[in-house]
């Protein structure tokens, strides 16, 4: 005969494994996950005039500014036969998804302290919902990128030699890596801000600095030629590798570096697991410190 504890469906306890990512429990709360995703999508641009059009305006205007400043004024090359605007838009599309995952999850505990203090559910669902909801924004921007890609290939008065190769099949891999890296870093920052509120003000500034060191508006080869002594800062930056690889598989200019791709996979998984460990440890006592 089963004991009372064995018949329980849920056991809420502060005792957890070092790495606890209970897929079975998360699946039970999938409706809540989708509810948070819906909330994030609806409330983001609620009571705004343009609404979801901001999904399109931000990357297009940023790409235009990058093209004018970095390509036209600074004369930074973008590759053989690659339109400057499309090059920048591809980099910004990849970067925006990573950035939104990082920034959106970096204040999970602070933003949801009232919910966490009243009802139980797997806390990791909250940062996961941010990653999933940002997929919609990423998908819309990807459609814009695809539309402009078709224009430059078939309708532009200038002939461009851009075409995705067989490595396009690795596209989902790099989307997952962006999500894992952004989620892992976001959970680490979120856990630290429960005690050190100053980090909240440093996140936006730090993300902007990171963008300039992540090959978003220039190819990695350009940095290697101009500043060879500091090239290692970008060469071993996992998000720079992911952004560069994203452009390669989309625009077909260059080839994937297998060794760097494996390195990016390892680092992204390690950061995600580290973030999960710190997140699980913090959720046990954050309500007393936040």
Written description of the protein model:
The radius of gyration is 21 Å and the shape is globular. The model has no long low-confidence stretch (mean pLDDT 83). The protein is mainly alpha-helical and 290 residues long. 69% of the residues lie in helices and 0% in strands. The N and C termini lie far apart (44 Å). The chain contains 15 helices and no strands. It has one domain (26-289). It has helices at residues 4-7, 23-28, 30-44, 54-73, 84-105, 108-111, 113-116, 125-155, 171-193, 198-212, 220-226, 231-235, 238-251, 258-283, 286-289.
Characteristics:
69% helix; 0% strand; 290 residues; mainly alpha
Number of helices: 15
Instruction: Tell me the Rg in angstroms.
Output: 21 Å
Summed over residues and divided by their number, the pLDDT gives a mean of 83
What structural class is derived from the secondary structure elements?
A: mainly alpha
Unreliable residue stretches: none
Helix percentage: 55-70%
Q: What is the string of SSEs from the N terminus onward?
A: HHHHHHHHHHHHHHH
Backbone shape? globular
How many domains comprise the coordinates?
1
- Count of DSSP strands: 0
Per DSSP, what share of the residues sits in E-state strands of 2 or more residues? under 5%
Q: Biggest β-sheet, characterized?
A: none
**Measured distance between first and last alpha carbons:** 44 Å
